[in-house]
């Protein structure tokens, strides 16, 4: 990946970061940049409607069309042409960016049109910098920039000016691959802004001396090895990257299988780039979008109650929560992949339940399958097979009670984990309370289903509950170590579910409590998008209810199916 970075400074418009202090800019306004790896993913439509949603919330918003290869942002606001545009700035007719802002029928929302018919004859990257340096003159709380698509230097340069970088893609493999490649170009741009050409050439020379080809090393591996070569250079690169928080808008989603593309993308970002990609929103495929475009009307105004409009509104609300405030804390994972423990390989927390381990395994197995992966532009076939082997080893260790118990003891002994991070230690406190007579056995047995798994508790001696909620003795040869008060039933370990069984999705940095089992029917996990007339639950009855006309007819719901 890193080959040619030192020599690409001239083609990308410079070798150093802009002299404008980003901290001062971010204290006044938030810059949202929308870009995509390829065209046709709905980037301009989403930019326009995000602006409308923010303006309706009382925020002062300016939309800017910086797609220098084909501007069309005004179309999604209901305009064919605007009286003023960036063409006036490029030609010198107007010198101040704020004079180009045109009012719209939506209160608090203004728009600056883009270039038409190749009106820019100067350096495109220099023009992007000229526009970005005047963002502070716009008197806006939020500036939403339509950066364009592809890996053109001007597109990457405008995206790098954002405080919140929003990647827009669809679940199609070609669009996902393009999103990976766009991010790779953006990270290379960050290198160019942080380091001079001579310094980058010296780093590449040091890498070759250690037997590493700079043109084939991933960004994560590059940053990992840079710590030993030039720690100051690594920190300079990291400072540039941390100015922009990356978010994902997954558009044109047709079902739960398409929704998984967001988690697959996030995993690829962690493994290949060492950075996080949060999901700002998932926009389902909606015919209302096509109808609004054909009528040349803004979606949010023409169809305010459409599902896509509501999802865009929720995405805007989430982006508001992350787009305001100081620069984000460091959350990168720039250490060697070989040093990751099984939990980080599977991307689950140590308190993850067996169902969460199982769900993560199924997702990662699909993500890194050499036959179907979208990571082939970044990882070769041997690298994918090696990652698959590590995922398989991690799963086989963590899904079985005995092997997970032994593995957790090793992590505890080495200091990699603390007592309150192990899944079973919280339940031990309940068992100790029963033994002491503080609570009754029945109350103790029901507590784990109500209390959050993330709550810390003091460790107890004797047994550990590490998976599935079962008590596990210190060694397989000592089952008598599990003790219980008279009259209390002690449930022994049971076999874990097979990899093909239904699984709960990985829900975040902390594991969530498992629901209490129902005696009448298996529990169905509802679809993330409610209101569907078709049962989309992932459960043991999926085969029988896939074509059921109503969700209530599913045998896995709380209400019985009519006979």
Shape: globular
Alpha carbon gap, first and last residue? 61 Å
CATH class of the domain at 28-179 and 247-322: Alpha Beta
Low-confidence stretches: 4-27, 425-563
**Strand-pairing-aware structural class:** alpha/beta
How would you write the strand order of the largest sheet? 3-4-2-5-1-6-7-8
What's the total count of β strands?
10
> Radius of gyration, rounded?
27 Å
CATH topology of the domain at 28-179 and 247-322: Rossmann fold
How many H/I helices?
20
CATH architecture of the domain at 28-179 and 247-322: 3-Layer(aba) Sandwich
Q: Quick one: biggest sheet?
A: 8 strands, mixed
Helix content: 25-40%
Describe the structure.
With 563 residues, this protein is α/β, with parallel strands linked by helices. Among the domains are: 28-179 and 247-322, Rossmann fold, CATH 3.40.50.300; 340-399, DnaJ domain (Helix Hairpins, Orthogonal Bundle); 419-487, no CATH class; 521-528 and 535-555, no CATH class. Helix content is 40%, strand content 9%. It contains 20 helices and ten strands. The protein has helices spanning 22-28, 43-56, 86-91, 124-132, 153-160, 173-194, 197-209, 219-229, 231-241, 256-273, 287-294, 299-302, 307-322, 342-346, 354-367, 381-398, 401-414, 425-435, 441-450, 542-545; strands at residues 30-36, 61-65, 102-103, 109-112, 142-149, 164-169, 245-253, 278-284, 464-465, 471-472. It has an eight-stranded mixed β-sheet with strand order 3-4-2-5-1-6-7-8, sandwiched between helices. α5 packs across α6 (173-194), α6 (173-194) crosses α9 and α15 packs antiparallel against α16. The radius of gyration is 27 Å and the shape is globular. 43% of the residues are buried.
């Amino acid at each position: 990946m890193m080959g040619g970075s030192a020599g690409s400074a001239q083609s990308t418009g410079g070798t150093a970061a802009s002299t404008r202090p980003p901290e001062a800019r971010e204290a006044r306004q938030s810059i949202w940049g929308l870009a995509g790896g390829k065209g046709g993913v709905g980037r301009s439509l989403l930019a326009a409607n995000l602006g409308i949603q923010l303006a309706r919330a009382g925020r002062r918003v300016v939309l800017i069309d910086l797609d220098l290869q084909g501007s069309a942002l005004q179309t999604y606001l209901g305009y064919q042409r605007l009286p003023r545009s960036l063409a006036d700035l490029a030609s010198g007719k107007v010198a101040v960016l704020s004079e180009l802002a045109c009012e719209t029928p939506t209160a608090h929302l203004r728009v600056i049109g883009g270039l038409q018919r190749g009106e820019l004859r100067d350096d495109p990257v220099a023009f992007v910098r000229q526009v970005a340096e005047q963002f502070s003159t716009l008197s806006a709380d939020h500036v939403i920039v339509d950066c364009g698509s592809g890996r053109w230097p001007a597109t990457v340069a405008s995206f790098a000016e954002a405080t919140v970088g929003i990647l827009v893609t669809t679940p199609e493999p070609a669009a996902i691959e393009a999103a990976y490649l766009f991010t790779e170009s953006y990270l290379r741009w960050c290198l160019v802004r942080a380091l001079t050409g001579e310094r980058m050439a010296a780093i590449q020379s040091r890498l070759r001396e250690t037997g590493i080809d700079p043109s084939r090393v991933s960004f994560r591996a590059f940053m990992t090895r840079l710590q030993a070569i030039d720690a100051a250079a690594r920190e300079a690169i990291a400072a540039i990257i941390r100015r922009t928080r990356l978010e994902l808008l997954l558009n044109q989603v047709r079902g739960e299988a398409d929704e998984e593309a967001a988690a697959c993308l996030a995993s690829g970002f962690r493994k290949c780039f060492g950075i996080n990609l949060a999901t700002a929103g998932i926009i389902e495929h909606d015919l209302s979008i096509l109808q609004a475009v054909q009528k040349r009307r803004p979606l949010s105004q023409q169809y305010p109650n459409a599902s896509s409009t509501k999802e865009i509104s929720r995405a805007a609300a989430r982006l508001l929560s992350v787009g305001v405030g100081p620069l984000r804390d460091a959350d990168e994972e720039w250490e060697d992949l070989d040093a990751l423990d099984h939990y980080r390989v599977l991307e689950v927390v140590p308190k993850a339940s067996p169902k969460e381990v199982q769900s993560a395994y199924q997702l990662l197995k699909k993500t890194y399958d050499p036959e179907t992966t979208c990571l082939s532009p970044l990882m070769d076939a041997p690298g994918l097979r090696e990652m698959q082997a590590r995922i398989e080893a991690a799963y086989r260790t963590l899904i079985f009670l005995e092997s997970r118990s032994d593995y957790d003891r090793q992590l505890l002994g080495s200091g990699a984990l603390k007592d309150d991070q192990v899944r079973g230690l919280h339940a031990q406190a309940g068992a100790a309370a029963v033994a002491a007579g503080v609570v009754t056995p029945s109350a103790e047995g029901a507590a784990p289903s109500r209390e959050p798994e993330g709550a810390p508790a003091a460790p107890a001696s004797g047994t550990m509950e590490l998976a599935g909620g079962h008590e596990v003795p210190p060694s397989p040869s000592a089952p008598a170590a599990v003790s219980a008060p008279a009259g209390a039933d002690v449930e022994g370990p049971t076999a874990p579910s097979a990899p093909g069984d239904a699984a709960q999705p990985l829900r975040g940095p902390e594991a969530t409590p498992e629901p209490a089992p129902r005696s009448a029917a298996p529990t169905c996990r509802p679809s993330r998008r409610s209101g569907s007339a078709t049962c989309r639950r992932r459960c043991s009855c999926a085969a029988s209810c896939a074509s059921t006309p109503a969700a209530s007819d599913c045998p896995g719901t709380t209400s019985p199916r009519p006979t």
